[in-house]
Write a structure and sequence with these properties.
Radius of gyration: 24 Å
Modified residues (N6-(pyridoxal phosphate)lysine): 302
Mean pLDDT: 95
Order of helices and strands: HHHHHEHHEHEHEHEHEHEHHHEEHEEH
Number of strands: 11
Shape: globular
Strand content: 5-15%
CATH architecture of the domain at 101-356: 3-Layer(aba) Sandwich
Distance between the termini: 64 Å
Cofactor: pyridoxal 5'-phosphate
Structural class: alpha/beta
Number of helices: 17
CATH class of the domain at 101-356: Alpha Beta
CATH superfamily of the domain at 101-356: Type I PLP-dependent aspartate aminotransferase-like (Major domain)
Strand order of the largest sheet: 1-7-6-5-4-2-3
CATH topology of the domain at 101-356: Aspartate Aminotransferase, domain 2
Oligomer: single chain
Protein name: Pyridoxal-dependent decarboxylase conserved domain-containing protein
Bound molecules: pyridoxal-5'-phosphate
Low-confidence stretches: none
Pfam families: Pyridoxal_deC (PF00282)
Family: Belongs to the group II decarboxylase family.
């Protein structure tokens, strides 16, 4: 493909993207293909001869689109939203234009410096403590996902704890023994990425029980830590979640801070989904706890109109992260900026060496919408969820909403006049019929034995009409299911 053909195909592709967003509502949200569908329609070997673009492009229409679940659809209410936006797509186009691999400052100064600047901007917009900013001992970095943020902060916490033992004169085999006694904590609602991080890091892990609102409480933390210390374990890391995946529950962060006071336990706040809401004044009350933590992470790719991937991690003392993740620099990486400590080398803040120029899309999004536009986006989403909540609240004979609707998520289940087992069955039937219908996509969960349907609006294209449509569909399906179950 030469530059003139790229120009032609590039314009066509942008037209196709626009058409996709204009017609998105007409697509069935959930892909209906069977596993292995693509293998059946694609050749078994690499094509020997070059293929014309028309043929490649037409395969997008006929072979790829049928296997797409349309996350940007206004009728996508599943999981948590992963918003895209046009400025963000343009940011990724520029990133692809440069295609720099910004592992260290010298490899592309703009890539590193813009990242540090936009994360300081975001940190200030949220109201993070100045210790999280890059001009002190902390700073922000873009990770691919919240899972990576959890893993790297756990590694930083382990480094910090082992340093404490080194300072006491332990080394070699003694330190290895200490490592086997390290234990990390989350709750029974913490995202499984924490368990995965402990598996990778080969440390122990305990999921602590939550209260009736599915929040982790300080008293539970205190008791478990005391028990573990008495048994010879070394607590070193705890994750507090603001907006759990199941139910958007909020852990009692200030109480957890009190519970770990005087220990060397690292508190990481996972606000992958809900953290975006902190740009709005009504959520600033959460900062009291967050600002006492060692690290904080949110996914701009969930709630802030920034295309995947874009997980923003802030850390108060970057030295622990850098020391945990840096190696002796090979000769091919040596440069004067790194040597003099003047440039940031983000390869030492993450697992891989290579990294994309993701700050561009944040920069474009922040500037295009402004703080005001981003706040409007969050509030619009939360209001749509409230509308749904209020609508189904009008049918107490059909629906039970057991939890408050936090951060734009509504969990509900179908009421049964018989046993709770029947309610689980009814909820599952309604859930299956809703998704089989093809017009909408929701996800389910199970909490303390109760099946629930999760409703999380998120697409910027979703408006009140879509809420009315899903409510009507839900009502019809629920009445049908109840009628056939009688
Ligand atoms: N933490 C929470 C609270 C989440 O809701 C999720 C995903 O939904 C994750 C972590 C994992 O996010 P990621 O896919 O960015 O690793």
């Amino acid at each position: 493909m030469d530059i003139e053909e790229f120009r032609k195909r590039g314009y066509e592709t942008v037209d196709r993207i626009c058409k996709y967003y204009q017609e998105l509502e007409n697509y069935e949200v959930l892909s209906k293909v069977e596993p292995g569908y693509l293998k059946k329609v694609l050749p078994k070997e690499v094509p020997e001869e070059p293929e014309p673009w028309e043929k490649i492009q037409s395969d997008i229409e006929t072979k790829i689109i049928p296997g797409i679940t349309h996350w940007q659809s206004p009728n996508f209410f599943a999981f948590y939203p992963a918003n895209s936006s046009f400025p963000s797509i343009l940011g990724d186009m520029y990133s692809d234009m440069f295609n720099v691999i910004g592992f260290n400052w010298a490899s592309s100064p703009a890539c590193t410096e813009l990242e540090s600047i936009v994360l300081d901007w975001m940190g200030k917009l949220i109201g993070l403590d100045p210790n999280f900013h890059s001009d002190g001992r902390g700073g922000g970095v873009i990770q691919g996902t919240a899972s990576e943020a959890t893993l790297v902060t756990l590694l930083a916490a382990r480094y910090r704890m082992l340093e404490e033992y080194k300072a006491k004169g332990l080394d070699g085999e003694e330190l290895r023994t200490i490592s086997t006694r390290l234990i990390a904590y989350g709750s029974d609602q913490t995202h499984p990425c924490l368990n995965k991080a402990t598996m990778i890091a080969n440390t122990r892990f305990r999921a602590l029980p939550t209260d009736n609102n599915f929040s982790l409480c300080g008293e539970t933390v205190k008791q478990e830590i005391e028990k573990d210390i008495a048994n010879g374990l070394i607590p070193f890391f705890i994750v507090g979640t603001i907006g759990t995946t199941n139910s958007a529950a909020i852990d009692k962060i200030t109480d957890i801070v009190d519970a770990i006071k005087g220990t060397n336990i690292w508190l990481h706040i996972d606000a992958a989904y809900a953290g975006s809401a902190l740009i709005c004044s009504e959520y600033k009350y959460l900062l009291e706890g967050i600002n006492q933590a060692n690290s904080f992470d949110l996914n701009m790719h969930k709630g802030l109109l920034t295309n995947f991937d874009c997980s923003c991690l802030w850390i108060k003392e970057r030295k622990y992260l850098i020391n945990a993740l840096s190696t002796a620099s090979p000769d091919f990486l040596k440069n004067s900026a790194s040597k003099d400590g003047l440039g940031l080398d983000f390869k030492d803040w993450q697992i891989p060496f290579g990294r994309r120029f993701r700050a561009l899309k944040i920069w474009f999004v922040i500037r295009t919408y402004g703080a005001k536009g981003l706040r409007e986006h969050i509030r619009k989403r939360h209001n749509l969820a409230k509308q749904f909540y209020n609508k189904i609240l009008q049918y107490p004979d059909l629906f039970i909403i057991p939890l408050p609707s936090n951060f734009g998520l509504v969990n509900f289940y179908i009421k049964s006049s018989n046993s709770s087992k029947n309610s689980n069955k009814l909820t599952e039937m309604v859930y299956n019929r809703l998704n089989e219908n093809g017009k909408v996509y929701l996800t389910q969960t199970k909490m303390r034995g109760q099946n629930m349907i999760r409703f999380a609006p998120g697409s910027p294209l979703t408006i009140e009409r879509h809420i009315n449509q899903i409510c009507e569909l839900l009502l019809n399906i629920t009445q049908e299911v109840i009628a056939i179950s009688l």
